[in-house]
Amino acid sequence: MTAAAERPAANTSGRKPLPAMGETLLEVNKLQKFFPIRGGLLSRVVANVQAVDRVSFKLNRGEVVGVVGESGSGKTVMGRTILRLLEPTGGQVIFNGTDITKLGKNELRDYRREMQVIFQDPFASLNPRMTVSEIIGEALQIHNLHPGKGRVDRIAELLSKVGLRPENMGRYPHEFSGGQRQRIGIARALAVDPAFIVADEPTSALDVSIQAQVVNLLQDLQEELGLTVLFIAHDLAVVEYICDRIIVMYLGKIMEIAPSRELNRNPKHPYTEALLSAAPIPDPSIKRQRIILEGDIPSPINPPSGCVFRTRCRYAIAECAQVEPELREVTPGHFKACIRDDIL
Amino acid sequence: MKTKPMKYMLTLAAALTLGGSFAAPFVYPAKWSADPASAAKKGGDYRESTISDYKTINPFTSAEARSIPNYFMSLGTGLFTQDQTNDSFIPHMAESMPEISNSGKRFVVKIRQGMKFSDGQPITADDWITTYKIHTDDKVGSNAYDSFFINDKPITVKKLGEYTLQFDFPQQSATAFVTMNYTPWPDHVFGKAYTAGGAEAVKKLWGLNVDPATVVTAGAFTLQSYSAGQRAVLKRNPNFGEWNKDSAGVALPYLDTVTLKIVKDLNASLASYLAGELDVYGPRNADDLAQITKANTAGTLKSTLIPNVSPAASSQWITFNWNKADSPFKQKLFRDVRFRRAMSMVANREAMVQLALGGLGVPTYYSVYPVFKKYISDSAPKYPYNLDGASKLLAQMGFTKKGSDGILVNAQGQKLEFTMATNSGNTTREQLGRIFADEAKKIGVKVNFTPIDFNVLVGQLTAKGESRPFDAILLGLSGGDNIWPYGANVVPCGTNLHSYNNPTNGKCATAQEQLMTKLFYQGDSTVDQAERQKIGLQLLNTEASLQPVIFLVGGSYHVAYNNRLGGQAPRDQMDSYYGSRGIETTYIK
Amino acid sequence: MTALPTPIQPAPPRTTARAQSQLQVAWGQFCRNRLASTGGVFIILLYVLAIFAPFVAPDGLSNYSTTSITRYHAPTPLHFRDPKTGAWGLYVEKFAQTMNPTTFLQEFRPTGEKCPVRWFLPGDTYRILGIAGNLHLFGTGNPNCKIFLWGAEGLGRDLFTRTIYASQISLTIGVLSVLISTLIGMVMGSLAAYFRGWVDNVINRFIEVISAIPYLFLLILLRSLFPQGANPILVLFLLLCILAFISWGDLARTIRSQLLSVREQDYVTAANALGSSQGRIMFRHMLPSMTSYLIVTLSLAIPGTILLESGLSFLGIGAVEPYVSWGTLLNQTQDGGIASITDRPWMLIPGFFIVFTVMCYQLLGDGLRDAFDPRKRQ
Amino acid sequence: MVTFLFRRLLNLLPTFLLATVLVFSIIQLAPGDFLTPAKLNPGISEQQLRNLAEQFGLNKPVWQQYFQWLWNLLHGNLGLSFSYTQPVLDVAWPRVVNSFKLVLVNLVLFYAISIPLGVYGAVRQYSFGDRISGVVFYFLLGFPSFFLALLTIFGILKFRQATGLNVPMIGMTSDGYDSLGLLGKFWDTLKHLLIPGLVAAVGGVAGFTRVLRGQMLEHLRSDFVRTARSKGVPEFWVIYRHTFRNAIIPFVAGIGGLLPGLIGGAGFVEVVFSYPGITPMLLDAIGAQDFYLVAAFSILPMVLLFLGNAISDILLAVADPRIRFN
Predict the structure, then answer these.
(1) Whose CA, among B437, B528, C186, D70, lies 20 to 30 Å from B207?
(2) Is A287 touching D (CB cutoff 8 A)?
(3) Torsions phi, psi of C251, nearest 5?
(4) Are A257 and A57 in contact (CB under 8 A)?
(5) Is the peptide bond before C322 cis (omega within 30 degrees of 0)?
(6) Alpha carbon B504 to its chain's center
(7) What is the ipTM score, two decimals?
(8) Average pLDDT, whole number, for chain C?
(9) What's the domain range around D54?
(10) Which of residues 40-59 of D touch B (CB under 8 A)?
């Protein structure tokens, strides 16, 4: 693990040295992403979909952090906003000491090398008109890595790294199975040798038997390459299995952050409790777990006042509607956004 | 407002005094029909087609010759009618021939009494006066406007009595009877509107969406219905028969209805005729004749086909532009009579008849349509096809050598080359032009022949000035009458269609043109037919020797009708001018 | 014809080590589609015929006689053996024309004169690809005793000669005009889809404005603006180009809406995440997804302009004398009405050339579309 | 939704003005005018030509004519047709109605033929039927419409001569139409509409069928269809729900263009079958330079295109939930 933690010298040219393992690599500070809804005669913004609202957390180098929450809780949007695939409405994303939300197009391109994404749907995320070598090679081409003959070798190396035979590099995505395609997607993400990866529910579109393989592959690669991973999932079981820490999101806001084990054993937020109670046995064969909560998730266009979870919270009190709870540290390394300390 | 009650009172008075004893009705002469009047049957529907949609039912805004108001609703109207057996005029709506005075310039006409419009109102002098007033109001824009003027001087029409009209012409006119022959339209419809709202009110009347019940005619038929773009149906005017009888005394017309179908082109029209859906069809060419013959022979159609009835009343010609200040060479060339005679010799008229007209047509050499035989003399100069003769004439002009490209050049090295245009889309003309250009090439004359848009072509043809925009144009004309077959805006210098020479000041360029202009007006004001013919022949001679325009070929007129029809004209009276039948005396067997 | 089974299950990864390029794969795929490749072969044959038209044609384009009339001459039968002498040898008979005064049909009777068919004989001069020549594939050498393989038209000119000469114009004039309009449509549609916002707005409004142009009027107007001496083919070509300039609206619209869908695809986001430039995303990822659509559109549009040209001829603004296109020839047939079908059916031949060419182009385009699309391979 | 449409209407205004200027100048720049053919009449005087020019306002400067026209347009007056000397709307409206009937029949036939063929071609790709229908319809597509109509009329004529059956050949109604009952009228018109409707439809069938087939194939091979199949969804449902509905999205985008076509008539087919629709009138109007009639026929499709686009935007949002009104 430690041997692979340092970058190969050949690829570091022009790159800012990374902090030491365990130091802060990424800091998200009050990140906001609203989608405006226009209306009226003059196309004025009449409302906003508040997909991500003032989210703050830190990621240390080499750490794997999970993000969980129901569908529509803003996980995917947050992941993409951190990578600036979506333009943030407000807040900061500080990567390795640089606020990337302020970067221009060209400067941003350099940071693209450091941060990559693995998509949920392995069918939609690969261009059906490009061969595997073109898909993986594109990243190398853009950043002018391994020019000339070395490029083919690098592609072959990446393919074997993700468990595919290098002979397959001339094929098109449709010739592969779902799991194989996801491996291609991972190889593409690794091609630029990133320090940080957002894995956006990389297993949820796969057959159950394949899920474990892909998760294992990711874990192996993370350890081998010393990657920092933000692992988005709605399946607490998977997250607990591979993550060091877990972030729980609800309606665009962070409810609780805690180390995996701590969160599982000792949830401090009613929402986390609900999530956990709905998933009693960690069993990877269960693909989609319905989390039993009363009522529906409210509209992100018009979220409830105060604590956004209060409408479905069984501990809710009158005060919850007035005060918006701060995310605060209740025990070392364990944060929660709830005004009541008298529960759980 | 004053005339109206007066008219009603007088009508009443006339009815009281005369009782039932009207003047004698007009009898259609038996000699006009090939079938005896006794064979005629009443009733039935006569079906014809037209290739352009009708535009209006209003007789004052209608422009086309065969429109519903100007033709079908005017059938059997007019103070006089031309006897097709001898071209002379006989009284029709007039009681008798007019009294002529003031050295042939004043005509006093007595109107037949007892005539009624289709709505039962009597037809009186007021109707002619109103119609005249509306036609001559320039705000109405009537197509008949021009016919009430001679050399910009108006013809006046006055009412002398309820049934007496007086026409005053500014000068003698050969076509006086044609002028007086206009159809009267009801004063109680148009006169009322005109007094109340002027020209605008008249124009608003009788559009295509008119209620047929409000349409009133003096003629044999009145409107029954019109459906947009499909057909118009006319029905018999019941009052027409009271004063129009056949030679057996039966009220005319025989037909109940006339159906006019609107089709897009003549191919569709032919197909309908072959399917027995139409009663008449005007075959255009050998193809049509062959199709009809075939259907007749096969028995799928029972119809009569009379080919080559007469030459058509139209012309095809090439005109050369004398006003080319921008190219002195061409101007000199086109103004040289030898050049134009040579070009006439280049026109292979026999080949044109064979190739472009399928063998059914005649070569023409004069502006008078061959159907007007009385105005044509074979003694007038002709320059028939003769390539050697043409070469000799061109050599006289200095074109003796051919260049490397085979085109004649003169001593100055100027090439004998010009552009000739015709309107695109007319296959016959395109073929005529092609043949002309190909023949010209044989003697070293290069003709760049291009079909162009019709409107552009007309714009160029009628352009005025010292430098007009064309070299040569191949086009055709139709229209005109057999009384004085020269066009008022064709022959005199300075007029619109004096196509070869039309400078800004409108002056003649040659003595012959001046003579032709003089002869035209002389003939136009000569009432005596024999005298007129003499002037006409002199004009023909002058024109033919000047060759300002080169005439090419004329097509033939053919007649085809379904055998269920009777009452057509005798074979010897049919021609392209009079047609083949009067619809008033047509019946269904 | 045998129906080829199409397995729907995912193809198992094949074991061949060398990957074929996309073009090679498509080509192999295309060759396997027999209908499409037949269409393609015929298209090529037609173009070859068009290039060598003056050589293949026995006569010049505009040759006819005003003395020996051959108007609507029926196709001349070819004889291989003289029935009298029994001698072998290809010959045609000379015909004399008369007009039957009762049926009004042109009748051609053999005069008894025989004209042997000769090969590679000199005749009218011509240029092929700039090289002058006067050899003709076949003919009789006697201008008064021609071989009318497909009969003659209204002036008595050889229809076979005219039809293959006409292919030169009909097969070329439309292609470039289609390419121009497709290119514009593609660029405009892509710009609208990629930039959205005001660019999209302006392009859409622009399409609406040009869609209001009365095409027929514009064509007539433009035709009249060219000087009369201008080469009619050049004029026709310019007219079609101008039509192309104003007829890209529909294509642009469709491309825009298709691209708006593609733009949301994960693989485009992935490319973005890799730091692709906007141009790269456009040309490498978004536009290639339009290939199948464009090929189908092109394959419909090229024959579409062949039809358009014939429509213009119908209105008298297509190819004009002395040039001919299939459209002008067909228009002559149309003018003849029913007689063209019953009395001289050979006049329909140019029409069937149009039909056949359009069909071949369609089959070709269909095959190409299937071949280029990895998901539709057999 | 209402404000959305209203905003589009506001957007349309500059477009509309620009287009009218364009239309107007093109018509004006075209050679000659309504009175040009009258100049060839041997009997018409120059005084008369001047009178008529005055009548129709053709002697005024172009910009004056334009503003006059625009002013009238704002008052719902499309001007006066020169050749009919009647308000344009009165003249054109019956034709619009007639064309609408034909196009309706045409569209029904068109979709009734092409949708099943397109679906069949995709489901049974490369089958005998797929190939034959492709060849046959490409063959029919190749006929210039004026030529196909001539052949059809000839065929009907021969059929009538051979059988004596009264198959309608041209026009929209039979001669005795006015005396028929309501049902008789309907049947008579329908009889006349079927053949031209069919002729107008076959030309487009090939194109639409092949594109639909292509779209269908693309979706048929996609994984969500595979998933649906493996889930045991009935085949019909797979084809209809999962494939067809996705395949038609590009065509939904094109529906905007369909609306002007719906009123725009069936083109040359109308001409050759002597059908009293818009096209023959438009061609006549262009031929005669009947200015305001042509202008109306140019402006009307633009208004309809706007309406059509608005409708297809709405339909697109319904068919494809990824696209929203913002």
Answers:
(1) D70
(2) no
(3) -60, -45
(4) yes
(5) yes
(6) 29
(7) 0.71
(8) 80
(9) 2-89
(10) 40-48, 51-52, 54-55
